[in-house]
Each structure stands twice: as C-alpha cells, then as structure tokens.
Amino acid sequence: MSVDHVTGRFAPSPTGPLHLGSLLAATASWVDVRHRGGRWLLRIEDIDPPREQPGAADAILRSLDRHGLTWDGPVLWQHDRHAAYDAALKSLQTRGLVYACRCSRSALAAAGVPDCLGACRTAGHASGAWRLSVQDAPLMHWQDALHGPQCDDLRQQCGDFVLMRRDGLPAYQLAVVVDDAASAVTTVARGADLFDNTARQCWLQQQLGLPRPEYLHLPLLLQPDGRKLSKQNHAPALTPAASANLCQVLHWLGQAPPPDLQQSTPAEILDWACTHWSRARIPRRAIALPA
Ligand code: GLU
Questions:
Q1: What H or E segment, with its residue span, contains residue 250?
Q2: What is the Cα–Cα distance from 45 to 176, expressed in whole angstroms?
Q3: Whose CA is nearest to atom 6 of ligand 1?
Q4: CA 93 – CA 89 distance, rounded (Å)
Q5: Mean pLDDT of the region 111-123
Q6: How far is the CA of 125 from the centre of ligand 1 (A)?
Q7: In testing the pocket of ligand 1, which one of 194, 204, 214, 231 has its CB within 8 Å of the most ligand atoms?
Q8: How far apart are CA 91 and CA 72, in angstroms?
Q9: Per the structure, how many domains does the chain have?
Q10: Domain boundary residue among 172, 194, 216?
Q11: Can you tell me the mean pLDDT for 30-34?
C-alpha cells in the first residue's frame, strides 16, 4: 500500500472508559478518513502502567465496536513497541541530539523550570531521563487543518523535553511519533488538549527523519464548571444508547444530523455522516455542556 493512502488513527490511553469527549474525537477522526476512503487504525497507548485502569482497554474496544467505529487491522498495543522506541532513542543518542538529565523533579520545581537546569546538557551522563535538545530548534511552523498556521518557540514553550523517562518508560512524545510513522498515519485528528504537543512532535519527526502527518485538533467538551470533560475529571462513561450518543457528537461537530437519524443504527448514522461530512462546519471553540 502506498504511504500517501489516507490513514487516520485513534490512540486512547487506557486510563478510563470512553466518554462523550473521547467519542467525539474518535467519531470525527473515523468519519474524516472514511469519507475519503481511508484506513482507520486503533492504537492503545498503554505505556504508563501506574496511570492505567484495569479493564479500561477492553471497555474502550467494546465501546468503539458498539458505536460502529470499526478499525482496520490488528490493534497496536504500545506495550509491544519498546524495541522500536529504544531504536529511535539510540539513533538520536548516536548523533548527540539527546542527553541524560539527572535533575530531580524537586530541583526543577524549585527553579520553576520544566527543562534541565543546564549542567546535564554537557555532563555526558550515561543514564537519567533522556531529553531531546531544542536549543538549536528553529521556530516551529506547522499547520492545523482547522486552526490554520501555527508558530511555536520550543525554547519558550517547553525547553528540552523528555523522550525516555528515568525509569526506562518511553514518554508520550517519543511513542506517538514513532508509532504514527510506523503505521504510515497521514492525518492525526485528536482533541485540542493535545494541541501544544504538536510542535514538539514536529521537531522530533524532523530529528528522526520521519514524515509529518496532517494535524487537526477537535473542540473539547467543557463541563458546566468550565473544566474539560476528561477521564481525570471523572467524566461519566457513555450511556448504552449508541445511536443517540453518535447523533449528539455529530451535532456538536456542527454536522447537523436530522432529528430522526437517532432511530437509525450506528452503522447507518456513520454512513450518513460520511456522506455529509464537512470539516468547515466543525466549531473551533470548546463546547460548553449545559448544567
Ligand atoms: N493517548 C492520548 C490520550 O488518550 C492521545 C494521543 C494522541 O492522539 O496523540 O489523550
């Protein structure tokens, strides 16, 4: 298959069940690639065992299935991908683009910096948290399919960032970049809470010589108190009414599903959505849920 074939993906962390916010992201990503005849992949981002919830990954798979959000090929589990993350880190180490940082979390917090305090950059430590240097990074220009051109200064935004943690676990930035490229993902449609990670991912892709996918950040759902609807904020799991859930998220996505569509099956609703899909109608701003 040619690498320019449209390929999207959904990449949940198994930290809790799907909720309306993650269903919105999954549905938008699915419809956006399916209406172009593309592939949709599923990747479970289970690289942070302490944050994971037993049974959450299975619950997510069942929920997607119930909503008709079918995926192509086998599920990619990040716990199986450590060799690929190690190989990517090794190639950066060989070229001197990363360094091991031994600054303690408390020292960083006391100094009020997210980044290394400085000495580790030239110390040549053999172990620690492996950080990718952004000291020579240019301003990162990237395009969001909904929000237009973006420009980020990584030195200001985050500084040298961690790719491999001190405990040997890969950081999200490394795993996501390696896996999006390995799966030949061409479109990353995901929640706007991940917006600020994109410049870091573009810089890492550039250092690893990997192609940059298209990015599209979807509106977040806000609880009546203004907080993001998220697993961390204990968003309620989805109700069993799959058709109503799908019509609700399509409505929030600005796609104006007709009211009687709720009587249809999930497969019929998704079919309707593929026919009528318009990126231009997706709202740019977060969506406040009624109290
Ligand atoms: N695993 C991340 C999450 O559940 C999503 C990563 C991504 O889409 O890039 O929030």
A1: helix 242-252
A2: 8
A3: 11
A4: 6
A5: 88
A6: 31
A7: 194
A8: 30
A9: 2
A10: 172
A11: 98
Distance 239 CA to ligand 1 centre (A): 22
φ/ψ (deg, to 5) at 195: -50, -50
What is the model's pLDDT at position 236? 78
Instruction: Give residue 291's pLDDT.
Output: 79
pLDDT band at 19; cut points 50, 70, 90:
very high
Label residue 3 by pLDDT band (50, 70, 90): very low
Distance of CA 65 to the CA centre of its chain: 20
Do residue 77 and residue 151 come from a single domain? no
Residue 257 in this model has a pLDDT that exceeds 80: yes
CATH code of the domain covering residue 258 = 3.40.50.620
Rounded to the nearest integer, the mean pLDDT of the chain is 95
Say whether both 108 and 130 belong to one domain.
yes
In a mutational test of the pocket of ligand 1, which residue from 13, 173, 204 has the highest number of ligand atoms less than 8 Å from its CB?
A: 13
Interatomic CA distance for residues 249 and 86, integer angstroms: 38
- Does 203 lie in the same domain as 145? no
Spell out which residues line ligand 1, taking CB within 6 angstroms: 11-13, 45, 176, 190, 194
Measured from the Cα of 197, ligand 1's closest atom is 9
60 and 184: one domain?
A: yes
* 76 in the same domain as 9: yes
Alpha-helix residue ranges (DSSP H) falling in 118-223: 120-123, 154-157, 172-182, 198-208
For the purposes of burial, counting CB atoms within 10 Å of the CB of 55, is it exposed (0-12), middle (13-18) or buried (19 or more)? exposed
Work out the number of other CB atoms within 10 angstroms of the CB of residue 216: 21
My answer on whether 71 and 154 are in the same domain is no
- Residue 185's domain comprises 3-81+175-288
Which pLDDT score, from 0 to 100, does residue 113 have?
81
**Final residue of a structural domain among 116, 138, 172:** 172
Beta bridge partners of 140: 152
Same structural domain, 22 and 165: no
